[in-house]
Amino acid sequence: PVVGDLADPAVIDQVFAVAGAPTNHVALVFANAGFAYYEAADTPDWERNERIFRVNTLAPLYLYQKTRALAAGRPFRVVITASAM
Predict the structure, then answer these.
(1) What residues contact residue 59 under an 8 Å CB cut-off, 6+ apart?
(2) Is 0.70 topped by the overall pTM?
(3) Nearest to 28 by CA among 82, 76, 85, 84
(4) How many CA atoms lie within 13 A of 12 on its CB side?
(5) CA distances from 71 to 54, 67, 76 (A)
(6) How far is the C-alpha of 45 from the C-alpha of 71, rounded, in Å?
(7) Using CA atoms, how far apart are residues 29 and 40, in angstroms rounded to an integer?
(8) How far apart are CA 33 and CA 43, in angstroms?
(9) The pLDDT value given to residue 25
(10) Fewer CB within 10 Å, N or C, the chain?
């Protein structure tokens, strides 16, 4: 397992380096990481909002792009859940 912060693209790169190492191919990615704060969003906090966006939006998009690049024309599937919304 790779433990890390999915708001950091270097962590996602590391996940793909480990997962794709045996065959240099990843056929299935299931993106279920996400989070939300269940409270009123009344206080302006750019960093907090950016972190939520990076994990819930940018990370799944980057996961898809990494999977597609590694697939290089081979079949693959990406499943993304929106559990934190």
Answers:
(1) 6, 7, 12, 31, 33
(2) yes
(3) 76
(4) 21
(5) 24, 6, 7
(6) 38
(7) 32
(8) 25
(9) 80
(10) N
pLDDT along the chain (85 residues), means of 10: 87 89 83 80 90 90 91 89 67
Cα torsion 12, 15, 19, 25 to 10°: value is 20
- String of DSSP letters for 40-80: ---S--HHHHHHHHIIIIIHHHHHHHHHHHHHTTS--EEEE
The residue with tokens 């279920």 is: 32
Question: Is 13 strand, coil or helix?
Answer: helix
